[in-house]
Amino acid sequence: MSYFKELRDQVGSKTLLLPGASVIVHTEADDILLQKRDDGHWGLPGGLMEVGESFRETARREVEEETGLKLPDEELHVFGVFSGEDYYVEAPNGDPYYAVTTLYTCMNPGGDLSESDEETLELRWFPLTALPQELRPSHKHFLSLYKQKGVQAGLIDS
Predict the structure, then answer these.
(1) Which residues, in sequence order, are CB contacts of 49 under 8 Å at separation 6+?
(2) pLDDT band for position 1 (50/70/90)?
């Protein structure tokens, strides 16, 4: 059983503060890997931290579980840490929490895409300029910041 589920068993539906990690997995052409989850929304691969994990370990484990890709450590870079009122979430069952998310970027992941995870309905590469409408709000924000930073650095065409 995951730490999150064990904690929920103890505290019920009280609002929690939960750490996790997400990853902007991208190609050199800035196609972004998105995962369609069972709630119908597209989002970045990632998830909640388990006891004893670092944010980096959480990112690597979650991406491998959800996509089959192995993230080379030298290609995994911290983009930012996000928390606060804007990161309030209600789980599909209504349980509330505030996410504390370390966001990474990774280019050139190893392995083949696999949709074998029960959380993953579909995996697809999207051009950064043509993201789906059904994108999780926080992930839309992350990708907006990623695009803005890339344009400022001259890495992405606006």
Answers:
(1) 3, 18, 19, 20, 21, 55, 58
(2) low
pLDDT digits (tens, 9 = 90+) for 91-120: 878 899 999 999 999 997 888 898 777 778
Q: Decide if 7 is inside a domain.
A: no
Asked if residue 99 is part of any domain, the answer here is yes
3-state secondary structure of 102: strand
Q: What is the CATH number of the domain that holds 107?
A: 3.90.79.10
Cross-strand bridge partners of residue 96: 90
> Per residue in 130-140, pLDDT tens?
999 999 999 99
For residue 124, the enclosing domain spans 14-152
The model carries a pTM of: 0.90
Closest CA to 20 of 48, 53, 54, 39: 48
